[in-house]
Specification:
This is CRISPR-associated HTH regulatory protein, Csa3 family. The chain has 210 residues and is an alpha/beta fold. The protein has nine helices and nine strands.
Length: 210
């Protein structure tokens, strides 16, 4: 099952576009409850989304998030949805900045086995670009130490780097250590080895159209 979890405000354009592009089986929209008046506007916008969902036979749900408990609530929702779905797209589509940032942070707090099943996506506003974040890869990058980060940075500076090229760019690192660190980066999925060359996997990808 494919699930779309998105931050939501008053604007339905980004959501409707993403639903059309992803064709999910389930959509969960997260809205920050700041006041009854503001939330009633959210509910009116959601009604339009629910009509689209009903016509396309997509299971849609609106989740109210209290600001004081936002991180815990969003994390709980993400864990539930990832456990129930084969893969989840977290779409940073709109709503208050607090909600958008909370959704991104909650994605990074997921346990490893769940983080590997999600990706974070954001669309450009007024320009045709899309950002995609590999959550598991970013989490792994945050876990490695300074020396492994140095090696990874060297690999990123070289397209299709050989072991000797990486060693030349980091002369202070013994070769035995370099072999061990490269093996660690391979196991963490931060580096791939293709035809004898080391290639860094970038956690963040931005694609722009015409």
């Amino acid at each position: 099952m494919k699930t779309l979890v998105a931050s939501f405000g008053f604007d339905i354009d980004f959501i409707t576009y993403r639903i059309s592009a992803v064709k999910p089986d389930r959509v969960v929209l997260l809205a920050l409850y700041t006041s009854r008046e503001a939330y009633s506007k959210v509910e009116k916008s959601y009604h339009l989304i629910s009509v689209i969902c009903k016509s396309t036979k997509i299971d849609c749900e609106l989740e109210s998030i209290e600001p004081s408990n936002a991180t815990r609530a969003v994390l709980s929702i993400l864990e539930r949805e990832v456990k129930n779905a084969g893969n989840v797209e977290v779409f940073l589509s709109g709503g208050p900045r607090i909600l958008v940032i909370t959704l991104l942070v909650a994605s990074l707090l997921l346990p490893d086995e769940l983080a590997s099943k999600i990706r974070v996506v954001a669309e450009g506003e007024g320009f045709n670009c899309r950002l995609e974040l590999d959550v598991k890869s970013l989490i792994e990058r945050m876990r490695i130490d300074a020396r492994s980060k140095e090696i990874l940075n060297k690999i990123e500076l070289i397209d299709n780097a050989t072991f000797m090229e990486i060693s030349r760019r980091a002369p202070d690192i013994p070769r035995s250590t370099m072999y061990r660190r490269l093996d660690e980066l391979l196991k963490r999925g931060l580096v791939e080895k293709v035809n004898g060359y080391y290639v860094a996997k970038k956690p963040l990808k931005v694609e722009c159209g015409d």
